[in-house]
Amino acid sequence: MASGKEYLNFILDQLSGLDDIAYKPMMGEFILYYRGKTVGGIYDDRFLVKPTKSAVDFMPAARYESPYEGAKPMLLVDEVDNREFLAGLLEAMFDELPAPKARKGKKKTD
Fold first, then answer.
1. How far lies 61's CA from each of 52, 57, 76, 102, in Å?
2. What domain of life is recorded for the organism (predicted)?
3. Domains of the chain (ranges plus CATH)?
């Protein structure tokens, strides 16, 4: 089941207090970025985040769920109605998230 644009818009609205939130559609789902780093995504109308140590500490009772078959489990964010909670979660996770990978440029042809 693909995620709906309505749920994406709801989550983006909940995160609107943070600077530089972006998303990219990916095979019917949405990858979410905070200040250029991948934090998680919207999968089957669920907000899942990477299980960094800070995210686990921030949500100690969170369930691990797979975004799709064969994927590494991520943390399900249940408190999507709480803007302050969501902002705090992403801020707590930020320093532990890997920097974006450099894009490979096109090869020069002479």
1. 14, 9, 10, 35
2. Bacteria
3. 5-94 (3.30.1460)
pLDDT at position 1: 61
Residues of the chain short of pLDDT 50, as ranges, are none
Please name the residue ranges forming H helices in the chain: 5-14, 53-58, 83-94
State the residue for tokens 């408190």.
79
Q: What are the angstrom distances between the C-alpha of 39 and each of 27, 28, 107, 108?
A: 18, 18, 30, 33
Exposed / middle / buried, residue 16 (Cβ in 10 Å: 0-12, 13-18, 19+): exposed
Which DSSP letter does residue 62 get? P
Q: Model's pTM, two decimal places?
A: 0.87
Distance CA 13, CA 83 (A): 9
